[in-house]
Amino acid sequence: MKKYIYETRMEVRDYECDIQGIVNNANYLHYTEHTRHRFLISLGVSFADLHEKGVDAVVARMSLKYKVPLRCDDEFISRLSLRKEGIRYVFDQDLYRASDEKLCFSCTAELVCLVNGRLSDSEDYNRAFAPFFEQS
Known about the structure:
The protein has 3 helices and 6 strands. The chain is of the alpha+beta class. The longest helix is centred in the first third of the chain and has 18 residues, at about 25-40. The two termini are about 15 Å apart.
């Protein structure tokens, strides 16, 4: 079983669904990005403030697995775990339908940092995430 370090709940909105009545595939990426941003906020880290300092975390690669579709008004739980590989921050993220804990979507998102426009390790993110790397 994965060791998650953060979770948040969300609900599918009608405009996120396609003609088949299921969540359009691209919206899963929005859900996972929103989860990562909320995780940062929970740590007291401001994505906007870091940007103003010239520190930008950007997605370098994602691996996606669609399992069970979410539908309009479904409540779901978005969970994540985190590890560091070199200069990459690797988030394993899973979305579970709240009603039955069915795994609906799973992804691995690899993020890197641009510091003043150059690929670099980020002291700010390393400091914020340090407690989670030590747990691994």
